[in-house]
Amino acid sequence: MAVREKLAFAGVRFSYGEKAILDGFQLAVGRGELVSLIGPSGIGKSTLFQLAAGLLEPQHGEIRLDGEPAARRLGQVAYMPQRDLLMPWRTVVENAALPLEIQGMPRREAQARVRQELPRFGLDGWADAYPAQLSGGMRQRVSFLRALMTGSDLLLLDEPFSALDGITRMEMQEWLLTMWQQTGCTMLLITHDIDEAILLADRIVVLLGSPISSPVELDVPVPRPRSLASRSHPAFQALRGQIWELLRQSATAQPVGRYA
Ligand SMILES: Nc1ncnc2c1ncn2[C@@H]1O[C@H](COP(=O)(O)OP(=O)(O)OP(=O)(O)O)[C@@H](O)[C@H]1O
Fold this sequence. Notes:
Layout: E1 5-16, E2 19-30, E3 34-38, H1 45-53, E4 60-65, E5 68-69, E6 78-80, H2 92-102, H3 107-117, H4 136-148, E7 154-158, H5 166-183, E8 186-190, H6 194-200, E9 203-206, E10 216-219, H7 234-251
Parallel strand pairs: 3-8, 3-9, 6-7, 7-8
Antiparallel strand pairs: 1-2, 1-4, 4-5, 9-10
The structure holds adenosine-5'-triphosphate (ATP).
């Protein structure tokens, strides 16, 4: 066991009925790492997150958290699904305080705790707004805050920025990098945007094959801190070409999804 290991899949097999998604799947993520997952549409990226979060169970193999077999993962992993799933009848504070209330914290205390966090989430002054009154970026930040309120230091972000316009998306990418540095959380991010995958991550996991067994793992040798200007770094461009080639090759075997 690696001392730094936060999450690991060891020899995991998972199928939906006859359809095998993972077989002998291996992946280890270190504590505090930011890892991007990229792969063709429908290959099993969200399934992987649902397994990590404990919403699905493997038919074979082991999923470990902090180096220990984690039979009960539900509630230990913060999972932000593709749609933000904010409750429309609850305000920003009421939505974000939900995990604390579920854990038994009195409502008033839970909401006070959330209010303290609003400024660094760019939500100062929006405590009592309803989700319908927020922009897409703000909704994502509320979802992110709610995920952090679970107390988990492992965050799974499933295409968090895909519904946002280009400028908001870039702002959110920079904001996410700041949050990652401030919180020290381990983050896994699913994206279809190769540039986003590289810009944010320490490591890129390219998921290929059906079923997936050994993903291709690529370190991102682009220096931090990163900004939009990092895209012109030679290492960035070389990696972009390498990932694109891997995905293009896989497209001959199976239909490929959308990539930016
Ligand atoms: N509950 C389910 N029952 C049966 N098949 C499912 C179920 N959920 C997903 N699948 C199938 O499993 C495969 C993997 O789905 P998954 O959503 O994990 O892929 P993905 O890589 O996240 O896709 P996308 O990039 O389009 O979001 C797909 O073929 C999907 O149709």
